[in-house]
């Protein structure tokens, strides 16, 4: 199986590449523009494997994508490339529209032309898997149920609106042109190699440096958390066995308030890492002005993927978080250069929600 992963130098994409290359039957081609969020260091352990190849490039370049599809005889596209940080989408939405909407459009066009050119057996095998987020469903009241696959879209932020737009395009290319697609919408991920502007790594690393731990508003916003390797397994399963034209919700069934996440990180660190000037890392928690348009809650009903494909997360939030903290404690070589760039003025770390 020749698999094109877009955005494979990012947080989830790199976890997916590491997971896919473990099967020698897979050849993984990683197409990534290497924006601020893409980091080749996340792929160090697989970069020399014979069934892995990295190509630096932009999904907005339809001709370049078309060349890769032909040259590498791609059977499956797993599309993760995106601008992903909600706070950045509020400060500057342009790149979100370009990559998430226009980039997905260009990729779909290249994929459609390529798919139409394939002989019957290869066309039968071909699959376009679009990776998306629970945020497309919008603001969920605290006392409501969870999002299922039929929940109407109601995105609140420029990020979630751009992802919703890309989901609609992918569905339209299936309904109108017959492109064999599958879509997944997943809740908040956490785990190793997570860029330290997102909540979990930001809190771990600020705590280790005894810096304030910023929490938006009162910290009451609720997210559902999934360990990134559980997401990678779900993606492989859906890409291989999901029904064409369908979407699948993926989540950890681990709803936590943002404040609860920060407090749990502090409690684990209190046990693992000596403090210099504090009784507890919790003493560093600092409430800051809320994000505009901040959705109260996201929660995923994952009955469909469990019933149809037999997927369930392996990590609980507490075990996954402890593994993640251990990884950050042991892997300063990965995150220290990123933190140092931020001290030199690159934007990082104002934000507190994923
Ligand atoms: P990330 O920001 O860590 O990585 C995105 C990657 O895409 C980077 O390597 C970047 O260089 C690359 N990229 C950006 N623009 C590109 C372009 N024009 N052409 C080629 N590459 C480009 O993101 P992530 O957190 O790994 O998320 C991956 C995907 O999963 C996204 O589509 C996101 O919407 C979705 N998702 C993320 C989460 C989460 O919690 N992180 C949850 C659900 C869904």
Describe the 3D structure.
About 50% of the residues are buried. Mean pLDDT is about 95; it is low at about 350-354. The strands form three sheets. A seven-stranded parallel beta sheet has the order 3-2-1-4-5-6-10, sandwiched between helices. Strands 7-9-11 form a three-stranded mixed beta sheet. The protein has helices at about 10-20, 60-70, 85-90, 95-115, 120-125, 160-175, 200-210, 230-240, 260-270, 305-310, 315-330, 330-345; strands spanning about 1-5, 25-30, 50-55, 75-80, 125-135, 180-185, 190, 215, 220-225, 245-250, 255, 285-290. The chain contains twelve helices and twelve strands. The protein is of the alpha/beta class and about 350 residues long. It has a domain at about 1-195 and about 225-255 and about 295-315: Rossmann fold (3-Layer(aba) Sandwich). The chain is about 40% helix and about 15% strand. Its cofactor is NAD(+). Its EC number is 4.2.1.46. It comes from Sinorhizobium mexicanum. It catalyses: dTDP-alpha-D-glucose = dTDP-4-dehydro-6-deoxy-alpha-D-glucose + H2O.
């Amino acid at each position: 199986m020749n698999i094109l992963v877009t955005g494979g130098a990012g947080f989830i994409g790199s976890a997916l590449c590491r997971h896919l290359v473990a099967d020698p039957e897979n050849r993984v081609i990683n197409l990534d523009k290497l924006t601020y969020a893409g980091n080749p260091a996340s792929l160090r352990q697989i970069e020399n494997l014979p069934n892995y190849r990295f190509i630096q490039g932009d999904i907005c370049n339809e001709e370049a994508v078309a060349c890769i599809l032909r040259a590498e005889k791609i059977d499956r596209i797993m599309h993760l490339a995106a601008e992903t940080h909600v706070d950045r989408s509020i400060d500057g939405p342009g790149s979100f529209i370009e990559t998430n909407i226009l980039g997905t459009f260009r990729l779909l066009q290249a994929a459609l032309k390529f798919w139409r050119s394939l002989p019957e057996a290869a066309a039968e095998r071909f699959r376009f898997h679009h990776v998306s987020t629970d945020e497309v469903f919008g603001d969920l009241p605290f006392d409501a149920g969870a999002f299922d696959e039929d929940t109407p879209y109601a995105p609140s932020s420029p990020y979630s609106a751009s992802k919703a737009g890309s989901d609609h395009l992918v569905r339209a290319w299936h309904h109108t042109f017959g492109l064999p697609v599958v879509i997944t919408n997943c809740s908040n991920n956490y785990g190793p190699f997570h860029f330290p502007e997102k909540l979990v790594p930001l809190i771990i690393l600020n705590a280790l440096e005894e810096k304030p731990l910023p929490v938006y508003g009162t910290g009451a916003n609720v997210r559902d958390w999934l360990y990134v390797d559980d997401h990678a397994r779900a993606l492989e399963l859906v890409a291989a066995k999901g029904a064409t034209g369908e979407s699948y919700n993926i989540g950890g069934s681990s709803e936590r308030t943002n404040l609860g996440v920060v407090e749990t990180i502090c409690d684990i660190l209190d046990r693992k890492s000596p403090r210099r000037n504090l009784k507890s890392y919790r003493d560093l928690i600092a409430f800051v002005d809320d994000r505009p348009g901040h959705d109260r809650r996201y929660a995923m009903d994952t009955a469909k993927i469990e019933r149809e494909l037999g997927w369930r997360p392996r990590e609980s939030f507490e075990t996954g978080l402890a593994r993640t903290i251990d990884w950050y404690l042991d892997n300063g070589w990965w995150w220290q250069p990123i933190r140092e760039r931020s001290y030199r003025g690159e934007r990082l770390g104002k934000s507190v929600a994923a």
